[in-house]
Amino acid sequence: MNELITELQRLYFLPDQQWHSQQANADSNPAYPAEGALTPAVVASSLAGEQTIALQLVSADGMARAMLVDFAKPGDWQQVANLYQAVQDELDLPAPAISASGQKGYRLWFSLAEPVPVAQAGSFLDALRRKYLPDITVVNLELLPAGERTVAKLVPALHEATGKWSAFIDPSLGAMFVDEPGLEMAPNMGRQADLLAGLKSIKTVDFQRALSLLQARSEAAVSQPGPGAGHTRTLLNVGNDYSDPKSFLLAVMNDPSASARQRIRAAKALQPYFVKDA
């Protein structure tokens, strides 16, 4: 168990990590009152199934080093796997950890080598969502930390409602948890430590590079006109002094302010005129 605590601390804990206990509020929904600094004894009690604790992901000065993408539906496993692979293949970042919730769904855990401002962490997560998860509705996807949502349950842990355990899982076995997203018994804590020991934190320079890349791609996608955009917006500077289609199309084809698509379409439309003249 000590090895697992060491790995959790290495990857996800802030320098002065704070924790919250889980209690039910007046509506019988979970509430997480702050309890103070997290100690190894408190973590050990959670790993033993004696209490449920949650990590405060944001420090008192507004910094974060653990970033989470929480999938509410177990049927979204393919999207989980796709994102897991994309951050490695397309963003050249270390693999995140994957956990099964103990109730339903999955969670990706991103570790930062050094804390970053929570606004940057939120921008990174939102850019990931827009790039790789556009088809998952907001109600089925949670990004942490974001806004007032800055607390996340520690894994592995016993889920009070289902009696099952959340756990970090081998990515190759993720599909096994689609119908049963939790363990009947507590996971082997040594094996949990081994899974985390193979993971690396994202270096600050790599995080900034990936964030800039995601933001640039997002801006490029916004700037490109979608289907039908040519009917509502144009950047043509060809004027209005044309009495026949041929001269107008020639002007469009040679207009540097026109998009490549517009100029190609004009050139295609001109072909019959030049065949006729020939």
Walk me through this protein's architecture:
The chain has helices spanning 2-12, 40-47, 77-89, 118-132, 189-197, 204-223, 245-253, 260-277; strands at 18-21, 23-24, 30-31, 34-37, 53-56, 63-71, 97-100, 106-117, 141-144, 151-153, 157-158, 165-168. The chain is an alpha+beta fold. α4 packs across α6 and α7 (245-253) crosses α8 (260-277). The radius of gyration is 26 Å and the shape is elongated. Residues 228-235 have low confidence and may be disordered.
What's the SSE blueprint?
Layout: H1 2-12, E1 18-21, E2 23-24, E3 30-31, E4 34-37, H2 40-47, E5 53-56, E6 63-71, H3 77-89, E7 97-100, E8 106-117, H4 118-132, E9 141-144, E10 151-153, E11 157-158, E12 165-168, H5 189-197, H6 204-223, H7 245-253, H8 260-277
Antiparallel strand pairs: 1-4, 1-5, 2-3, 5-10, 6-8, 6-9, 7-8, 7-12, 11-12
Helix pairs in contact: 1-5, 4-6, 7-8
Q: What's the rounded overall pLDDT mean? A: 86
Share in helix = 25-40%
Structural class: alpha+beta
> Distance between the terminal alpha carbons, to the nearest Å?
85 Å
In terms of per-residue confidence, which ranges show pLDDT below 50 for 5 or more consecutive residues? 228-235
Tally of structural domains: 2
